[in-house]
Amino acid sequence: MGRTSDWYARHVGDTFVRTSKAWGYRARAACKLKRLDAKYGLMSRQCDVLELGSSPGGWSQYISYERRVSGMAWRTVSVDTRAMVRVRGVSFVQGDITEAETIAKVSSRLPSGVGLILSDICPNTRCERYLDSIATSKVAEALLMVSRRFLLDGGALLHKTFVIRAEHIASVMERHFSSVEVYRDASSRSFNSEAYLLCVGD
Ligand SMILES: C[S@@+](CC[C@H](N)C(=O)[O-])C[C@H]1O[C@@H](n2cnc3c(N)ncnc32)[C@H](O)[C@@H]1O
Where does S-adenosyl-L-methionine bind (predicted)? Predict the structure, then answer.
């Protein structure tokens, strides 16, 4: 079997792909967020949300749905370098979170900050250990900068990274947050094994 058919067989056989399709989510990532929400009660936080790396919109759909069923009128602003088809109740900013122009656009929509930042940002990795490690560290740096700018006291940052980098990034985050927990989701496919860091401030 070639690489493409290999990927296809894995993809259609994946429970999270089937579940996300059944629920009408644009990406299987929505099922991962649902699992993280069940573990950490993310959506029960009474606050505005800043979502980073949102396209094609699976997480945005999940956030939008959860907020609507709970009747909460909190704002959600989502950011991605790539375009995203509109999601009800979500304000989308197209831009790079490392750029001042994007930060200014987010600021104008969330002038008072947020209680929760959710990042599913995935840098363009090249399966080259040194370059990938630089790319994931750059994302972590950008998230720290965004957290300093937008996260309110007691707020939380959920950050997706790769298992191989998780402990190092956690040790950096521990200098800036009062608690940092590393979680490896069972839905992560082994070849790109992802980990999530939940960083909570004072
Ligand atoms: C795994 S995808 C996100 C999937 C999304 N959470 C969903 O549920 O549909 C990662 C996204 O991160 C975005 N991204 C990567 N670097 C970025 C950056 N510097 N600023 C904003 N978005 C970025 C990519 O364009 C990509 O759409």
Answer: 57, 59, 80, 96, 120
